[in-house]
Amino acid sequence: MKKEQDLTEETTAGQEPEEAAAAQEAESASQPEQAEQPEIKQTRTEPDPAEQLAAEKDKYLRLYAEYDNYRKRTAKEKTETYSHATAAAVETLLPALDSFSLALEAACTDEAYKTGMEKIYTQLNEALKKLGVREMEALGTPFDPNFHHAIKQAADTEYEEGMVCQVFQKGYLIGDRVIRHAMVAVAQ
Predict the structure, then answer these.
(1) Residue 187 in 3-state DSSP?
(2) Distance (Å, rounded) from C-alpha 157 to C-alpha 169?
(3) Which of the chain's ends, N or C, has fewer CB atoms near its CB within 10 Å?
(4) At what angle do helices 2-13 and 17-35 cross, to 10 degrees?
(5) Residue range 95-124, pLDDT digits in tens
C-alpha cells in the first residue's frame, strides 16, 4: 500500500492539482474492483457411498488380518520363550543327573543309601518327564549327526558299521529339539 502511495505522489507531483485529484480517484476506484472479483468455487464431487463402504470394509479387513497375525506371532513367541527357558534350565541340571547316574553304578555296601539315591534319581527323571524332556535312544541305532556326537570309532563285532556301539554321555530332547547331543562311539 505504501508503494502505491509513493507512485501516486510521484505521478501527481508533475501534474496540475485537478489532474492529480482525477488520477487518485481513478486509482482508488480501480482498487475495490480488484477486491470484488468473484471467487472461483471449486466443485467437489462426493464419492459414491458404495465405494466408501468398500474402502472402509477393505481397511477393516486389513486391520483385522494385521491384528490376527500379531496375536498369532505373540502366542508363538511366548511358547518359544517358555521352551528356550525350560531347555536352558534343564541343560544346567543335566551334569548333576549324569553324576547321579555314575553314583548309582558305583559299588556301595550300604543298601539303604543306594535305595535313597535310586529314589532321588527316579524323582529327577520324573520331574524332567513332566517338563517334556526325554532321553535319546542311542545304543544300537544308526549314527545320526543331528542327535549324536561321535568322539571315537571302535572296532566292535557286536554292531554293524555305522551303528552306535557305546554311549559315553546320554543325549536329551524336549519335543523334537535337541538339548544335548549324545556322546557316542561308532562301530567300524
Answers:
(1) strand
(2) 22
(3) N
(4) 150
(5) 999 998 888 888 888 899 999 999 999 999
